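This part of the workshop introduces the protein records we will be handling. Getting from the letters to the tokens is the skill we practise here. An example says more than a description, so a record of this kind follows:
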Amino acid sequence: MDNPGWHAIRRAQRESTQDPPIRGPDGHFKAVEQLSPMNEGFTYPPSIPRKNDAHTPDAGHQYNNSWSPEDAPRVIPGPGRSHISRMTAVERSQNLRIARTTPHLQFMVGPLLRYDTVDKAGIWNGFCLIVTADAGSIYEPHPNLVYEWDPEMPTSMSRTASNRSGATFSLGPHPADPYNFTPDLEGREANGHSSSYRMEQTPGHEIWMYEGNGGTFTFWRFTIQIPLSANEMVVKYSINHCQALEFFVPGRNQNMRWAAYSCNGFSSGVNPDDFRGPGFKTGYDPVWTDLLEKHAEHPFHILVGGGDQLYCDGVTREPELQEWMTLSKPDLRRAYQLTEEVELAIDRFYFNHYCQVFRSGAFSRANSTIPMVNMAGNIDGFGSYPDDWQNSPVFKAIGSRGYFFYLLFQCFINVGVDGLDDRPGKHSNKSIIIGGDGPFIPFPSHSFLTYLGPQCSMLLLDCRAERKKDQVCSRTEYDKVMEQIYRLPKSVEHLIVQIGIPIAYPRMVFLEKALGSKYNPFVTLGKKGSLGMSGLVNKFNADAELLDDLNDHWTAKGHKAERNWFIQQLQQFALLKRIRITFLSGDVHCAAVGCLKTHVKEKSNKGATPATDHRYMLNIVSSAIVNTPPPAAVLTLVSSLSTKVHKTLHHADTDETMIPLFTTEPNGAPSKSKFIMGRRNWCSVSWDRETGELRFDIRVEKEKGIGSTVGYEVRTPPPQWSPP
């Protein structure tokens, strides 16, 4: 009974047990999450929570994202007082005055940044998104974004360098900080700029409007285009004369530095405070704070979301869905008809939940200063249930609207505005690859092939929209993706394939068979609620819990043939185009590195070196930046399976193993498992100019909740084989 997974299941059961929902005086149910516009005290995301041992968080809140005058630092008399104390009252008023947008905008979330690609003309293409409350905003004229850069100015960060001292932590000024001295861009004089200095303005384009009980809210998208110069540049931007934020773009011949993460939330039943170290307001912030500290030292150009950028399981707690959720038999839930009230509740949940997560804590700081590139993955397991359940009205609506809001909030795309034509010049996103129609959602797949530098590109393969129990991606999607990667420039040596779920990872075939069996005793007991085991069956269709996760895996019985075919297609591509393939994944809540390589049949033959082996492909697994690691028993099981060399692809002259990367624990002690690291983590990636290698530095949390990490580095060599 000391299994933390067991306790999480029981806690989730207790949390889901609630009184029947009651309608309010207006006839509507009270939403699980109902947000108000962001406080007038700031219009941008809050600063990173500063470490303060004396701070005690409000245990009832997932995030604390409001700032009030009481939170402002006090001027303390004596030797340790701030330089602010030496200013006059007028100077303090001028310097500490919190900027407000003009014309006024009442923000729900934002600004959020997204990177698209660099086109053939050397233009950096990206977007900014804000969501504003119509009742409290002025749209005459439309919101306006101003951005500036100077190719000849050094790129030292205008924020102060990160620092740690005891229980304090700071990444410098931010629009929510009362000590921010950054004026709006249009009010700034051009003194100190070179003759190459540029400033551009771009109006907001309305791409959608959400209407709910709380009013109407507009999604504004701003297009950003920056000609790359010989040197790396800092780009400063502001909206409607408000305080400036900044992000970085690489030099014209520079390969990007970037960070990757996955699983940005806690599973049901996990107590976030268990992961909150001294001084942090929530357990969500510590590892994000570490990422931002590294960004302050060596700025990242993009932030790659590898799945589960937020967790949306909470949609099932909305009061309008309780009648459906509490039906005793899966057949009744499957046949339950979708009502307008339930449909509106699903939209309400997604809108409020996205706003809450994307405007809260350290994560909000990241997505306003590091342009995002995200793959689909906010509907965990969708597509991996039986077809009749996937087509049931309510479940289908949950998946369909989840994908719509993924495109909207994470890709800044509205199909109704942007269309489905991915030919050059037809879509707002130049990197997009539109695939085949989803079998259970009214959208085709949206993959992206984006530029990371002269030697590096990334494919974010949409593994969700077209998923079924016996399919990850359709042949239409594969054909269009392969057509595009074969057109990559000759300078490209590395292609990172972001696939969400690991493709080279220890098998769980025996567990998949056991959980899928109709004779599984745990499922029988769970369906009856016996021995407190109701949490061991899925809340939707009463199959074994975890079975949908196992069915999601590339190595699941229904996907194994497709997986092997896909790997062989990429091997052929790598050989012909002389490009190194590296997979990047998340999902499994631990760090690992899988390896595909040429199978050597004779022991006396050492085989090709990794650099000369076109089949040598690493699978970097980085998960989770927030969520809890698997229970110790699961980690032990996966570790024991990691030593096995799989023969699945021996017919294609391919071996599959795991890399023993984790020889020590973060504290220096001998590791219990060299192959699997069960701690929270993220990954820093850069290109080595001297060797041509890609460096993947998996940053693992030292101790739970303390907000600092230790790096475990693995490198992928550049291709050194000759094409046939």
Summary: The two ends are 58 Å apart (CA to CA). The first strand starts at residue 107 and ends at 118.
